[in-house]
Amino acid sequence: MPDSPGHRAPGPIRARPRAGALNAGIRSGLLTLAAAAEATGGRVLGDGNVTFRRVSPVHDAGPRDLALLAHRRYAADLADCGGRALLVSEALSRIEEGPAHRLVVADPHAALIELLPLLHPEPGREGGVHPTAVIHPSATLPEGAGVGPHTVIGAGAILGEGVRIGANCVVGAGVRIGAETVVHPNVTLYRGSVLGERVIVHAGARIGVDGFGYVSSGGGHRKIPQVGACVLEDDVEVGANCTIDRGSIGRTVIGAGSKLDNLVHVGHNVTVGRDSMLVAQVGVAGSTRIGDEVALGGQAGISGHLRIGARARVAAQAGVIGDVGEGQVISGYPARDHRSYLKAMAHLMHLPELVRRVRRLERGCAARTAG
């Protein structure tokens, strides 16, 4: 993290050069199966000299594509697959239908991490401040930082090496941004927010917003000043249009390596542990503490002042109104143990038949009583 002025950038950052057999296996934007196997630690079934230009889903693959088969549920699409070759796991590598030439890997999704940068290399990161950007004289920018059109950088802000700020962003007073962090267009970083190294903030996100804190009295609502901090630790990624409130008097912290999908809201004084995942439209109310490696499914709602234990799993649309233990899996509303919830739902599906049976019994009892 930058904490003092005078940082200097090493210049534009270019895509990592390719070497050895990998370089030989890349031909005019095409990649050979042999080179792909070397990059991913996989093996080739068929001709290693077969080339492909991109990776595509099985149903959409064309004659220059490597078709991705990551799950058996998509095997039915192989009959009509037009791909040149197939990226597949060991478990599915012997499926008869589909392309005969295959790249076999332990985990097809993990292989994409190596393959996609080879096929779609990131362009060189050019530094420089756009002439329409407004930079306060007391802000610190290294020479290699990139600042887009119409962006405003406030007093005392500090940007680290290789930071890129997109167009129409606002970087408030006293904000600190760590090295190699990327802030996409139309992001607002409120005063004093702290972003670690290699953080990614997608378009439209708002970081360090005032929390929802009021004292209601006399028929009105008096605002409690929100003077705390908002911290995104190293390697955090924040999706488009997320909102993360600053602490009221403490800190809101998103732990290192955690990932927030689009449209997530994190309330004031919330702590999210390391390597947690918050899927789209999750809402976390104030002062809740979330442990490491927690997964919150889409549209899950977490009440305030709760404790969510490490490695807990909360299913999509669950409504959490109580503490969750370490490793616990919960679902439903109000959220409870996932197995118990599924059993309850299974019984609920039989409710119409149970109602009919009860009515028959009631009619029978009424007839016997009348007789």
List the helices and strands and how they pair.
Elements: H1 20-24, E1 26-27, E2 30-32, H2 33-40, E3 43-45, E4 51-52, E5 54-57, E6 65-69, E7 85-89, E8 102-105, H3 108-119, E9 128-129, E10 134-135, E11 146-147, E12 152-153, E13 158-159, E14 164-165, E15 170-171, E16 176-177, E17 182-183, E18 188-189, E19 194-195, E20 200-201, E21 206-209, E22 214-217, E23 220-223, E24 229-232, E25 237-238, E26 243-245, E27 251-254, E28 259-260, E29 265-266, E30 271-272, E31 277-278, E32 283-284, E33 289-290, E34 295-296, E35 301-302, E36 307-308, E37 313-314, E38 319-320, E39 329-331, E40 336-337, H4 338-349, H5 351-370
Parallel strand pairs: 5-6, 6-7, 7-8, 9-11, 10-12, 11-14, 12-15, 13-16, 14-17, 15-18, 16-19, 17-20, 18-21, 19-24, 20-25, 21-26, 24-27, 25-28, 26-29, 27-30, 28-31, 29-32, 30-33, 31-34, 32-35, 33-36, 34-37, 35-38, 37-39
Antiparallel strand pairs: 1-2, 2-4, 3-8, 22-23, 39-40
Which labels suit this protein?
single chain; 371 residues; alpha/beta; Udp-n-acetylmuramoylalanyl-d-glutamate--2,6- Diaminopimelate Ligase, Chain: A, domain 1; UDP N-Acetylglucosamine Acyltransferase, domain 1; 3 domains; twelve-stranded mixed beta sheet; ten-stranded parallel beta sheet; 5 helices; 40 strands; 15% helix; flat; disordered N terminus
